[in-house]
Amino acid sequence: MSEEDETWSADRKNKDLRMFPSCSSFELSDPHDPVLSRLATQMFKRTNDYLQGEMTAGQEHYVLLEEINRLVITKYADLRSLAVNLTKSINESNEKYETEIKPLLQHIEDIDNEMSVLEATAFRLDSYTKQLLARFVELLDIDDKSNDK
């Protein structure tokens, strides 16, 4: 490439950059507006501060999530232990019911049934006794009437 082609390329490059205002070329030899440089520096510092803050907040969120996860793992372990202990207690209570309490309840039920039968027998006996008494009184009255004559 010749020097003339390079100049033309540089002119073309500058012309293209002027057509796109969002693009800028920074060359050390070009003079810049000091206010613009100061504002750009402030903007970059503030953007840096903002991004650092966002990254720090994200990191703090991850640390908080890790701590929450550790606490949840501990809590679930405690709940699991509690559930195991409850299951064990319920099984022991069911076994105790089946071996000790259920036979006693069955015995009470049998006694209640026997008492019902005994009570029915007592009522029948009472009724029969009243019938016998009435008949005895009737017989005595008949004998007394016969003797009186």
From TrEMBL:
- Which terms does the UniProt entry file under GO BP? endosomal transport; lysosome localization
Organism domain of life: Eukaryota
Give GO terms: molecular function aspect only.
gamma-tubulin binding
Tell me which Pfam families the record gives.
BLOC1_2
One annotated Gene Ontology cellular component of this protein: BLOC-1 complex
Which positions are tagged coiled coil?
A: none
Q: Which InterPro entries match?
A: BLOC1_su2
What family does the Swiss-Prot or TrEMBL record give for this protein?
Belongs to the BLOC1S2 family.
Q: What is this protein called?
A: Biogenesis of lysosome-related organelles complex 1 subunit 2
